[in-house]
Queue: 2 jobs
Job 1
Amino acid sequence: MKKITLTIGTLLLLATSTVAQDKVTGYVFEDQNANGRMDRSEKGISGIAVSNGVDVVQTDSRGCYELPIGDDTTIFVIKPAGYKVPTDHQFIPQYFYHHKPMGKSDAFKYPGVPKTGQLPKEVNFGLTKYDEPVDYSVILFGDPQPYTDTEVNYFGRSIVDRVVKKEDTLFGISLGDIVGDS
């Protein structure tokens, strides 16, 4: 009898861990100290849209969300007005989490997303308050495809540097890749 109970318990545990990987939960919160973690004093933000690329849900009154997730899913917060998302050391917005437990396929020429391992208990997104201007400029870079280091430097000096100096430019988007394939 003990053997049957142990086997059923093990199967239930395995089934529970498998089910847990079918959904992602987390919070969107006001990151008052901009440390990237939801501290006890920081509150969730309600009504923020979060997506898995297929479904879009809004956070509840506590800032909590839940979405289905697969083995190749990106979870992301849709930035609301009046808040900004954190950026990394290259000023790339950090508003997403890639869930790819097996990593990239070896069939591709370029490296892809590394293995993420098991889904964390929570995937949280910190936002900071931001006094967003009503009028601003957006810069779109249309697939420049420089082929040499000289062309990359020229693009940086003659275009990107000018954009950085414009005071009313809120953000820029680069369409396509920034380098040509040879």
Job 2
Amino acid sequence: MTFPGGTSVSRLSVYSGSPCADGLEGGTPHLHTASTEAYVVIGGHGTLQTLDVNGLRETELSAGTTVWFTPGTIHRAVNRRGLEVVVVMSNAGLPEAGDAVMTFPPEIVADPERYRQAATLPPSPPSGGPLPSGGPLPTGGLPASSTPPEGLAPGAAGALRDIEEAVRRRRELAVEGFLRLADAAADGDLAPLHRFYDHAITLVRPKAAAWRTIWEGTVAEETRRTAGILDALERGDGAHLRRSALMESPPHDRWGMCGNLRAHDVAHPIVHTPEPS
């Protein structure tokens, strides 16, 4: 059984410590082609920059703020002071399967191979993660000059520096493209944004059939499950209550587009109270 509503959840510490070309600290601008994303802010302060056919908008973020945005909304999290967010994504499995497209400059987004090279990060350190214990990623996200934390496995420090540099490089590329799109929109020219949308669809189109399979087994299955429960309730049938279960998904750390993520694999939870045979 998937996470409630066929969604996914993760905790995001928005990147800080290394300003972009425009002097702002934060994440990598991107959009989602199929999924809606929600931010539930639990600490710190920042802003959310969004760009769509209505232009550029800035929304203040502080503890208690809850915002969400639909497919096609280019978004960039800006960290002013320790911004911490719980991210809820619709269509669990699709964002992880490449639903997002970053706002690289048009010459990169228009070329699938160049886009793939710019978007792909190096392999994780030998331990399988930034820290051998599976602990959190280095505090501060992307420092201007990184000192590897203590306790890394042999060879992991260099791999960590490689990943940090690749994360920084792809963020800078995406910010460059984002600023070009935002400047054009501010001048009343939405043609670059429309071209970016077209390129984004070209990039993800080959994945759509596989995404449908994922969606059928998560969101659609959850909807059918609820429909069946409602039918049973109308009949006075409570058999499903006797098949109740408790599930858990421990966090795992990874480099996200907007910051350091503590994500949860909601598709493969630990079942503490399995359904009776």
